[in-house]
Design brief:
There is one protein chain. Strands 1, 8, 9, 10, 11, 12 and 13 form a 7-stranded antiparallel beta sheet that branches. The chain starts with 18 loop residues before the first strand and ends with a strand. The protein has 4 domains: 124 residues, GOLD domain (Jelly Rolls), CATH 2.60.120.680; 122 residues, Jelly Rolls; 109 residues, no CATH class; 75 residues, no CATH class. By secondary structure, the chain is an alpha+beta fold. Helix content is 15%, strand content 34%. Helix 3 packs antiparallel against helix 6. The protein contains 6 helices and 19 strands.
Length: 482
């Protein structure tokens, strides 16, 4: 990205100093004004598309059967009784089995159970439904992303010792840094780097030259310069120098007007780009000699990573063998101290070889499969028992129903007939239902009450009456004529 209207040039970070540029005031220029986080901490992003040998699946969608809400309650019972016979999960005994929600709408649960048994059993597990790796155990992240300066992109995967990470990266228009490590980016240590720049250049009328550094709090700049004529010198951020270049008069961190030499120190309090500018507003060319010494604090130290490379535009496909088990991270870092652009586009492929095939995953999940099958079997058996219990309960007579009459057994000849009227009487009767005479024990009496016609029970003793009874067989009370 050009830094001025004419003749600007750029160095190479710590290896060659700050970023250089220049031009005439009022000309086109591009200064990095995106700012940075106040802490100066890089910002990470992840989420590249995972590529495997099969199409990605998900999210998983489950169908289920929702039965009708109505169900009968069999009188007052404890809560667990209602739960056990609740047709919401067991279904109604008089409906087909597939109406029961426990069967998931017609056999889906049975299909799942059979699938869990048959797939591993017959070796048909060519893919694993809960993993994004392919059948050979490879997981590949592939994407093209835009990084702003002081950001990094990362992906990670759990890899066992001895397995490989294959990677390639391209970046344009800026250089980037790349690292592989078994810890997050935030765990990388920071360091302080010391650097210096010195140069000599001519300044024409209304031209300026600058050198810029991206520095974080705790850093410092020491400057020293001398010129063959009077010039202006100031230190500014990207917003201020852009406004100045367009003819404005912003405030600067340091400003020295109409001087031929200068020296001083500036302590950095914010993470941002700092531009040191020399400007000639005179009528003749001025020769300027500069010397800059700087201390850059809190610089991310990639040397701690297991593998790293800094300041490159591309990395050809290579392979890294991980030395230990764990989560292994892949970092692409847009270091603002190495490149002056606002953004850069990265294209990367990183493939993690987990060496855990789909068959291995099926074998490892066998205990879970067995548990699922056992639980499903218990639920189905419980549903069948509950439905069977419903059927038996339905056929059982109600507690309020009229008890069945015990068949009248033949009585002895001395008591099989009433001795007064000759009517047949039951063995346990105390009075004749035809004449009201007492079978034995006392003489015939006349009750004070009369049972109304069509009554179902005796008005005196409450015993049940049949439609043909003229007297109560228990107490002898007369029944009115029907």
């Amino acid at each position: 990205m050009p830094r001025g209207g004419g003749g600007g040039f750029r160095g190479g970070g710590f290896s060659g100093g700050g970023f250089r540029g220049g031009g005439f005031r009022g000309g086109s220029a591009a200064f990095r004004m995106g700012g940075s986080r106040s802490s100066g901490t890089p910002f990470g992003r992840t989420g590249a598309t995972r590529i495997t040998s099969r199409a990605p699946r998900g999210p998983y969608r489950h169908s289920y059967y929702r039965p009708h809400r109505r169900y009968s309650r069999f009188g007052y019972r404890p809560w667990y009784w209602h739960a056990w016979y609740n047709p919401w999960w067991a279904g109604r005994w008089y409906r087909p089995w597939y109406y029961s929600p426990v069967y998931v709408g017609g056999g889906i649960m049975i299909a799942i159970v059979l699938g869990l048994i048959l797939l591993p059993l017959f070796g048909l597990a060519l893919w694993f439904p809960f993993s994004t790796a392919d059948t050979d155990g490879y997981v590949t992240y592939r994407s093209t992303e835009t990084l702003n300066f002081n950001e990094y992109w990362y992906e990670y995967e759990y890899i066992k010792s001895g397995n490989d990470i294959t990677y390639s990266v391209q970046s344009s228009p800026s250089i980037i840094s790349f690292a592989i490590w078994d810890e997050p980016f935030e765990s990388l240590p920071t360091t302080t780097k010391i650097g210096s720049d010195s140069d000599q250049f001519p300044l024409q009328n209304d031209y300026y030259e600058y050198i810029s550094y991206f520095l974080k709090p705790g850093s410092s700049i020491h400057y020293n310069y001398n010129a063959s004529g009077q010039i202006d010198f100031f230190i500014a951020n990207g917003y201020d120098i852009n406004e100045w270049n367009q003819g404005g008069s912003p405030s600067f961190y340091v400003f020295e007007d109409n001087v031929d030499q200068g020296s001083g120190d500036y302590s950095v309090s914010e993470a941002r780009d700092y531009y040191l500018v020399w400007y000639n507003e005179g009528v003749s060319t001025v020769n300027v000699n500069i010397t800059i010494n700087y201390s850059a604090a809190n610089v991310v130290d990639l040397t701690e990573a297991d593998y790293y490379v800094e300041g490159v535009y591309s990395i050809n496909q290579s392979t890294f063998t991980v030395p230990n088990d764990g989560n292994w991270y892949f970092f692409v870092y847009f270091d603002p101290m190495l490149s002056p652009e606002e953004t850069t586009d990265i294209t990367f492929d990183v493939s993690y070889d987990t060496r855990v095939t789909s068959t291995d995953r099926w074998v490892s999940i066998q205990p879970i499969l067995i548990t699922i099958i056992v639980v499903a079997g218990i639920v189905i058996v419980a549903a069948l028992i509950a439905r069977s219990g419903q059927k038996k309960l339905k056929s059982k007579p109600s507690s309020k129903a009229i008890p069945a009459k015990t068949p009248v057994k033949a009585v002895k000849s001395s008591t099989s007939k009433c001795i007064r009227c000759g009517s047949v009487v039951r063995k346990d009767a105390h009075f004749c239902p035809s004449c009201g005479g007492k079978i034995e024990g006392r003489s015939i009496g006349t009750p004070s009450k009369v049972t109304p016609a069509n009554s179902k029970s005796c008005s005196l003793c409450g015993s049940k009456l049949s439609t043909s009874d003229k007297f109560c067989k228990w107490c002898g009370t007369e029944v009115e004529f029907r």
